[in-house]
Fold this sequence. Notes:
Layout: E1 3-7, H1 15-24, E2 29-35, E3 54-58, E4 61-64, H2 68-79, E5 86-93, H3 105-115, E6 120-125, H4 135-151, E7 158-163, E8 171-173, E9 179-182, E10 185-189, E11 195-199, E12 203-206, H5 213-218, E13 222-227, H6 237-243, H7 248-255, H8 257-273
Parallel strand pairs: 1-2, 1-5, 2-4, 5-6, 6-7, 8-13
Antiparallel strand pairs: 3-4, 7-13, 9-12, 10-11
Helix pairs in contact: 1-4, 2-3
Amino acid sequence: MKRILVTNDDGVRSEGLTALAAALEPLGEVIVVAPAKEASAVGHALTLHYPLRLDQLEPRVFAVDGTPTDCVNIAVAVVFKGLPDLVVSGINKGWNVGDDVTYSGTVSGALEGALLGVPSIAVSLKRTRERMDFADAARAAARVAERVLADGLPPRTFLNINVPRRVTHGFKVTLQAKRTHVTSISERVDPKHRPYYWIDEAQDEWEADERSDYQAVRAGYISITPLQPDLTAHRAIRTVERLLGVSAAPARKARRPGPEAAGKKSLGKARGVR
Length: 274
Ligand code: MN
């Protein structure tokens, strides 16, 4: 039987998490290991400076007083005692599209799964003021999860799914949107006359791109973006070599077979573990 780890960043009591776990139930043994409290926008943080507690709330539901990344690691080491067949993180209340994925605890839960060599998926739904309906997102997650459990994913790749409030089209494979980041900080004064600050939701100006996750969800598609942990700006390698006066040609020649061969070896290993 396939073993599925479900986590999130909205916290173990989030309805999105419960809906996701229920939708994945027909696909295997689902075990939830999620943050005890909301951990949205913690990104890929790993807790190293205080002890973490694991509380069993139900037979297959655990809470960790840490981040989604903590949850995935404790799940693998303590709960599963090995790698699960799939990690699914969500369903987040609010989209995680474009550059915002870098802040996302939801996306980082899946990122951590991918780094451990497990096929992983993050799922987010448009946030609405009224009570949110997770049915479409849960169904989409289960459909993608079923395909991924059957066929796997390319190594070091995970999927970021974003679901519109009303799905009017099918799935669309997209790329991460770009936006002009405008920071907005509110300053207030406390009773002791010292200033304090609130980080506001920044104003978003998205670069128009037909293929982007942002435009897909806006148009009613379920957006699926393949993401990877590698943040290297590959197209900038030569520019930076020139910038520093590092001779590009011999270095590239010497380097090229190295990482590729090493990558293939570790891939084999990761597959073996699974
Ligand atoms: Mn969240």
